[in-house]
Design goal:
The complex is a heterodimer of chains A (541) and B (986). Chain A is mainly α. Chain A is 40% helix and 5% strand. The chains are: A mainly alpha (541), B mainly beta (986). β1 (27-28) of chain A pairs antiparallel with β30 of chain B, so a sheet runs across the interface.
Chain lengths: 541, 986
């Protein structure tokens, strides 16, 4: 009797309710979107995520496959560092496989970011605006912004992988099917066109976010590459979209959108004040601890002594031998954007920066070659680097955290605040010029030259410029490709440029030999195909 | 039933009156107790069965007890047959105890109760004080290392006083879930080893290990990795006892990695073997971290005693453990109190236990070994002007010892109460409740002049202060009802039913700051730093909880002590489980057959006892993250809001899985317990096969449509099967000399059976990060269906003339590294299985020699037939490295002129035998009534290791879990230890 009473008692006690799970220090999806700040925090989430894949973040995102397979940058093995399972060599030599972990990671990061757009689009669409504390206008504008940003994810996914699944709802369908590159192209174009007018124009308040300006920049990119991607040229559409930006119709982040007057304002610690930036990842270390993560990719182990800051790197990505010399001696971009030669301490330029690996204890001297100089070797390839091999990145600046000698320069109060530009107006100028030339039978006209000269002239002292301005005769297609390389080095466009100029699979550079045309698309990661049997592999894999 | 009950109470009262009457005729009975060799025995419990008064024999076996002539006196002593004798008229008794043929009365702890060892039907190992290792336990598990077949205890951090022990029973049962056994200390259930902090070796009576599922099922979803039950010493009725134990211990470094010294390094530079700088100094960086003056000590004082109604035991312990490293120690005080009270005419038994440990751990030192071994030895820790030398690419570990502090002040308290009420004969209702409260405060400070402070880029030279507190609380409430009844004299039943409620909550916060104007505050005034004002200080807090609720029952049946059966069922739910699977059932059944009781066995005199056991049980694992089944939103970092502020952004950071549930282990165990050859040889043999299914792991989810790339879900299965043997042999027993020897042996095969289902496919998993420069990845690849711990990598084929690596491809051709196919597809790859990190065999061998007052123990243990990746050689016997190098760089490894590569070139056999403990003790037989017992002992631990392995101490290399066998490049030094100890009882 007692037994049965006991059992009865305990059966009722041990019920599900008592096992309800608490979340004291975590947010659970069900109790979110209760005010405008929460809504905004969801709308802005994909941007901090984009830091990981669209910038050289130290992760395998979009940027590495977009640059390290091309003719300007590489991550050679340097002594005991940088072999990394051969992944850098496979990118450089175009010998990647369907099992490439880095490519799967890129896929995963980008679709994750896309999901971070899908989720708030869905949540904001289905919820009552009063409950969320926002107006109908705000709701429409948030959704338009998120749809443009989602289109941006698909644009960059298509850039790498071509034929991809397009999904606009979280969790559905369970196994989405591959869409052909042409269909993805249409989806992206349609999404941008349908939402661009509902999205806000670019303004100071939209800094670091997708706006109408970002939308037009995406259209420029789509149409510029349309022939390469879909077989159908769209040069007029490209020019039209570019004009929207050039004419300032889509707003600007600091007054009217215009080219910056020099080659520094776009890349310095206060580049949020640049006039030409169209879409950027807006870092702020001072108040948000949100800082660029590219030092890991580019910086030497002792870089902080060189620039007087606090960040070092993995001594990773360097400029491929010979690229440095494509810059004119007087080209300010060569001296300002690249590091070469003996390194001295920022805080005391009479003191050398000492190397820490092969040249431990000796001065660090960056050289325009990749070989084991210390051993007297002349073999130059991806395997034979040393800690000082290769010319280095110095385009974006992090800002000095220590004062220079005698207090000059003073500490930069904005150190680590440097934004990363995804699109800037110079690139639109170049795109329009290229569209004009291609439309014109690959021949430049004065309008094309003016566009390029407007950008390039900033890189020369007035006295040096006269003789270097392009004329329709000097601005050949090859010259345009070379000048694009000089202007947009490190910015993530080089692979696309080579594909468009039909050099990617046929060209040779440094120790890279021609490969096959199928390499112009990366393979759909096998790991994803294992998970989703509806994904089709690209040709050639 | 109630009426009957009342009558019983009534009669008891009457009996009690009679008992008082009898007391009048008692007088003092004195005597002596001796063993079969006429050696006098102190410590024998002597009880007057009528009055229930007990006493204990003192030195020289003398006792005195009050008894009437017709009353029965019993003499009981562990290892001897209980003897009962009527007091009679004599005033002096001479008692001789006979050793029990086998420890018949030995009781093992099985969870929610105890069982007579002979009647146990599951695989339980019972280790008592006399078997414990005597080398000064840093952790109670050290006491039983090598003593339980199938229980692997590995100290990857060696003798570091602030480190724990890696524990694994019968192979890996999980990949991502909790791999910790459940610890039950005097009934208090705890999911990890932290509770062991409150236990001091002198307070422990026994440790029981529930090895198989048929026994562990009573603990349901927390029992997959086995159950370790610790029982502490309790008060006994009889004369008060005072016991004092202490030891002093000193450690010496052994097996130091063989790097060049400064002069040798200099010579290598001069000879051109290495192309490095000579900075002019000569420094033994490693040695500068060693605390050559280390001396550890432990003192334990306990008092115990009581009457037949009340017993108590109280102890205090002081322990100061000094590591072999400087600034690496742990000083602690513990108290333990046990109180037992019988009331309501002996129908109510109550027990209270309270234990607390206060420790102050110095966490600063104990690391930095790799960096110090591999620095250029011509550098110095000092600049020319006597200041500490700092550089950006290394850390001055020596200066840290003087310029930083890092301490943890911790208190762990356990309190439990238990009441057993006998309602009617055989029917007992019990209630048990416990609280475990573990809290600590951490403090760190780095001087303004310290390297970490000088090299900080936000506040260079501004110091660094950190303070963090954490509080972990565990509550358990477990009422049970047990009914014991024997029908027709031969059918013995025990039925147990119970309820269990367990709640865990943890919370804490931490904060740090920089930018101090002086070093006066340390971490005691965090607000004074400047970093807080500009957003460069950190503040964090956390809180989470989980609940387990269960109902359980156990039924034991014995027919004539010959045929035994046990059935267990537990229904348990956890707050962590997904909505679709809140509760699970965990059944078990086991059978025993005491063959030696059969008539046909009686003629076989060589077999004294023989029992066959067969058990099958299901257990679970609920040890995973909270909220793992739900969609939570995660912060993505701060971003620019339209008003110019940077605020946190949020997005989903987990894919939902409402089907998430426990991992389920099913285990079959066949065992044999035996005592042979006139009770000289005893042992147990167990064969088991266990399979854990619904393994939890993070699977790659298809993206799209999922947002996150991973989902935590139940897919795979892992299994192990093995043999365990424990033997005990009384080898010699003649006159004053005896030799007893014990041995354990185990072997195991651990397989990852599957890791895929229809939805999620994983054909292989990789484990065991090689670490070091060169991003070499994981060394171990476990394919579906393959054995755990398999090294997969390149096969070394030699070097080219200029010292570049050559490896064999799958066709057996020697090729350079760039021609090696590293695919994980076994049909394409050039990689091959090149070794296995899990020992095929484990064995230990203990010997106890006894001669007159001397005892000598020699204990050896070893692991056999496995491989270790010698990472130190991989990274530091290669001239690519710019700092110090192993001497073997220029002999064994001198051909290499290439970057780091992982291949079988660096795999070595790890097989070893260790002379783990030698203890010589002397027990004084003093003719004084003031001292009951006095023993001094001298122990040497880790005296010698016989192995072909050329890296660190192979005993420290992890052999548990899924990523074993990767040696550390910066292992805590292996030490040889000497200890002088004293036990004295008054």
């Amino acid at each position: 009797m007692i037994f049965s009473a006991f059992v009865l008692l305990l059966s009722t006690v041990a019920c599900k309710k008592q096992l309800e799970e608490h979340a004291y220090d975590q947010l659970v999806a069900d109790n979110f979107y209760n005010n405008k700040t929460e809504v905004l925090s969801a709308v802005l989430r994909p941007y901090t995520h984009a830091n990981a894949w669209v910038t050289p973040s130290g992760q395998d995102g979009w940027w590495r496959p977009a640059e390290l397979s091309a003719d300007q940058l590489a991550w050679p093995t340097k002594g005991r560092h940088g072999e990394d399972g051969g992944k850098w060599k496979r990118l450089h030599y175009h010998t990647w496989t369907v099992d490439e972990g880095g490519l799967n990671n890129a896929w995963s990061l980008m679709y994750w970011g896309m999901g971070l757009c899908n989720d708030p689009i869905e949540q904001i669409s289905k919820r009552d605006i009063a409950a969320m504390g926002i107006t109908q206008e705000e709701k429409d504008s948030y959704i338009a912004e998120l749809k443009l940003l989602r289109a941006f994810h698909y644009l960059k996914l298509m850039d790498l992988f071509g034929n991809i699944p397009v999904v606009t709802k979280v969790g559905e369908p369970a196994k989405p099917e591959t869409m052909s590159r042409a269909e993805v192209f249409n989806f992206v174009e349609t999404e941008i066109k349908e939402n661009i007018d509902k999205a806000p124009k670019m303004s100071r308040g939209m800094l670091g976010r997708m706006s109408q300006a970002g939308g037009y920049a995406m259209l420029v990119e789509l149409y510029l590459n349309a022939e390469a991607w879909t077989g159908t040229a769209r040069w007029d559409d490209c020019i039209a979209a570019a004009d929207k930006l050039i004419n300032g119709e889509a707003g600007g982040q600091n007054g009217a959108m215009a080219l910056d007057p020099n080659i520094i304002d776009q890349f310095k610690t206060t580049n949020d004040l640049s006039k030409e930036v169209i879409f950027s990842i807006a870092y702020n270390y001072t108040v948000a601890d949100f800082e660029p993560s590219w030092p890991g990719e580019f910086y030497h182990f002792k870089q902080q002594e060189i620039y007087g800051g606090g960040r070092n790197g993995n001594d990773g990505i360097v400029v491929i031998p010979g690229v440095y010399t494509t810059y004119d001696e007087k080209d300010l971009r060569r001296s300002d954007w690249l590091l070469i030669g003996p390194m001295f301490k920022f805080t005391d330029p009479t003191q050398p920066v000492l190397a820490s690996e092969e040249y431990n204890g000796q001065q660090l001297v960056f050289v325009d070659n990749i070989r084991k100089n210390k051993a007297g070797s002349t073999t130059s390839n991806m395997s034979e680097g040393e800690e000082n091999s290769g010319v280095r990145f110095n385009k974006y600046k992090l800002g000095n955290q220590f004062a220079g000698p005698g207090g000059v320069p003073a500490i930069d109060p904005n150190y680590n605040n440097t934004d990363w530009n995804v699109y800037r107006l110079s690139w639109i100028y170049f795109a329009k010029a290229e569209a004009i030339m291609r439309k014109n039978g690959n021949i430049a006209n004065q309008a094309a030259c003016d566009l390029i000269n407007a950008c390039k002239s900033r890189a020369f002292a007035a006295a040096d410029w006269e003789t270097r301005a392009y004329t329709p005769a000097t601005l050949t297609m090859d010259e345009l490709l070379a000048e694009r390389g000089r202007e947009f080095i490190f910015e993530g466009f080089r692979r696309d440029d080579l594909i468009r100029f039909k050099k990617f699979s046929t060209g040779s550079w440094w120790d890279h030999n021609p490969t096959s045309a199928t390499k112009e698309l990366y393979p759909i990661p096998q790991q994803q195909r294992d998970l989703n049997s509806n994904l089709k592999q690209n040709n050639g894999y | 039933m109630h009426l009957k009950n009342l009558l019983k109470v009534f009669f008891s009262l009457i009996l009690f009156c009679f008992a008082n009457e009898a007391m009048a005729q008692r007088r003092a009975v004195t005597g002596t107790v001796a063993d079969e060799n006429n050696a006098l025995l102190p410590g024998v419990t002597i009880t007057n069965e009528a009055s229930k008064v007990s006493t204990v024999s003192v030195v020289n076996g003398k006792f005195i007890i009050q008894a009437a002539a017709n009353e029965t006196i019993t003499f009981s002593f562990l290892g001897y047959n209980k003897l009962s004798q009527v007091a009679g008229d004599a005033t002096t008794l001479t008692i001789k105890l006979v050793p029990s043929p086998r420890a018949m009365n030995e009781v093992v702890v099985v969870g929610y109760g105890t069982q007579d060892r002979d009647k146990v039907t599951s695989a339980v190992d019972h280790v008592t004080t006399k078997d414990f290792r005597q080398s000064g336990a840093r952790n109670p598990l050290d006491l039983i290392q090598g003593k339980v077949a199938g229980l692997n205890l590995t100290r990857t951090s060696g003798s570091n006083p602030n480190s724990g022990v890696a524990v694994q029973l019968r192979g890996a049962v999980t990949v991502t879930g909790s791999s910790s056994p459940l610890y039950v200390v005097d009934g208090i259930p705890y999911p990890n080893a932290n509770i062991l902090d409150v236990l001091q070796q002198d307070d422990i009576e026994s440790i029981d290990v529930l090895k198989d599922g048929s026994g562990a099922a009573i603990y349901g979803t927390t029992a997959n990795a086995g159950v370790i039950l610790v029982t502490t010493k309790k008060g006994r009725d009889g004369a008060p006892r005072v016991d004092y134990s202490s030891y002093f211990r000193k450690e010496y470094v052994q097996r130091r990695p063989d790097f060049l010294n400064a002069n040798e390094y200099r010579q290598r530079i001069a000879s051109g073997d290495i192309n490095q700088e000579d900075f002019g100094s000569s420094t033994d960086f490693y040695d500068q971290l060693i605390n050559h003056d280390n001396l550890s000590q432990n003192h334990n004082l306990s008092v115990s005693g009581g009457t037949n109604k009340t017993t108590y035991r109280a102890s205090i312990n002081y322990r100061n453990l000094e590591g072999i490293a400087k600034e690496n120690g742990r000083e602690e005080y513990s108290m333990r109190l046990n109180l037992n009270q019988t009331a309501l005419q002996d129908r109510l038994k109550m027990q209270f236990n309270l234990a607390s440990n206060f420790n102050n751990a110095n966490l600063l030192g104990g690391g930095g070994w790799e960096s110090e071994l591999t620095k250029n030895p011509t550098l110095s820790n000092y600049n020319a002007d006597g200041t500490y030398r700092f550089d950006l690419t290394s850390t001055n570990e020596y200066a840290r010892l003087f310029q930083e502090t890092n301490r943890r002040k911790q208190q762990t308290t356990t309190a439990s109460g238990r009441a057993d009420l006998t309602i009617i004969d055989g029917l007992k209702a019990s209630v048990f409740g416990s609280v475990v409260r573990d809290s600590y405060t951490d403090g760190q400070y780095k001087l303004k002049a310290s390297e970490a402070s000088m090299e900080d880029t936000d506040f260079p030279g501004g110091g660094y202060a950190y303070r963090g507190t954490s509080l972990f609380q565990d509550f358990a409430f477990e009422p049970t009802i047990q009914y014991d009844k024997t029908f027709a004299q031969k059918h013995a039943f025990t039925a147990l039913i119970g309820y269990s409620y367990r709640y865990h909550i943890e919370e804490g916060h931490s904060a740090d700051n920089r930018g101090f104007i002086n070093d006066l505050f340390h971490e005691d005034a965090l607000q004074e730093g400047a970093a807080l004002g500009v957003g460069k200080a950190n503040i964090n807090s956390f809180k989470n909880d989980n609940t387990l609720i269960a109902l359980f029952t156990r039924l034991n049946y014995a027919y004539d002590d010959k045929y035994l059966a046990q059935f267990i069922l537990r229904r348990e739910g956890s707050s962590r489980f997904g909505d679709n699977h809140k509760f699970g059932y965990f059944p078990a059944a086991s059978l025993g057959w005491v063959i030696s009781k059969e008539n046909f066995m009686q003629s076989l005199s060589a077999i004294n006892f023989l029992k066959l056991r067969l058990g099958y049980g299901v257990t679970g694992n609920s040890g995973f993250e909270n909220n793992a089944s739900r969609v939570t939103l995660g912060g993505g970092g701060k971003y620019l809001f339209p008003d110019g502020q940077y605020l946190e952004t949020y997005g989903p950071n987990r894919n939902p899985n409402p089907d998430l549930k426990w991992e389920t282990k099913r285990e079959l165990n066949i065992g044999l317990d035996f005592t042979l050859l006139n009770n000289r040889l005893s042992g147990k043999l167990d064969l088991f096969k266990r399979t854990t299914k619904d393994l939890l792991d993070t699977y790659t989810s298809p993206q799209p449509p999922f947002i996150q790339s991973s989902i935590y879900t139940n897919v795979g299965s892992i299994s192990s099967k093995g043999i365990e043997l424990g033997l005990s042999y009384k080898a010699v027993k003649s006159g004053d000399f005896s030799w007893n020897t014990d041995a354990t042996f185990s072997t195991l095969k651990n397989t990852l059976d599957s890791y895929s289902n229809d939805q999620y496919k994983v054909l292989y998993k990789t484990f065991g990060d090689i670490g070091g420069a060169g991003a070499l990845g994981n060394a171990i690849t476990t394919y579906e269906g393959g054995e755990l711990g398999e090294f997969w990598g390149k096969r070394f084929a030699g070097f080219t003339a200029d010292g570049k690596w050559l490896f064999y491809n799958r066709n057996g051709e020697k090729v350079t590294n760039d021609q090696i196919n590293i695919s994980k597809d076994r049909n394409l790859t050039d990689l091959a299985k090149i070794g296995n990190a899990i020992p095929k065999f484990y064995a230990s061998w203990g010997n106890d020699f006894h001669y007159k007052n001397f005892d000598l123990r020699v204990f050896l243990r070893g692991k056999f037939d496995f491989d270790i990746l010698n990472t130190t050689a991989l990274s530091y016997a290669n001239k690519t490295w710019s700092g110090n190098l192993l001497k073997s760089t220029f002999s064994k490894y001198n051909q290499i002129n290439d970057t780091y590569q992982y291949s079988n070139y660096y795999l070595e056999s790890g097989t070893y035998v260790k002379l783990d403990e030698v203890t010589l003790s002397y027990t004084f037989r003093l003719k004084t009534k003031w001292i009951n017992n006095l023993r001094v002992y001298f122990t040497g631990q880790n005296l010698a290791t016989i192995t072909g392995y050329t890296g660190g101490d192979p005993d420290f290399v992890l052999d548990t879990g899924t990523g074993p066998g990767i040696d550390s490049r910066g292992a805590y030094p292996s030490t040889r230890t000497f200890l002088l100890g004293l036990n004295v009882g008054f």
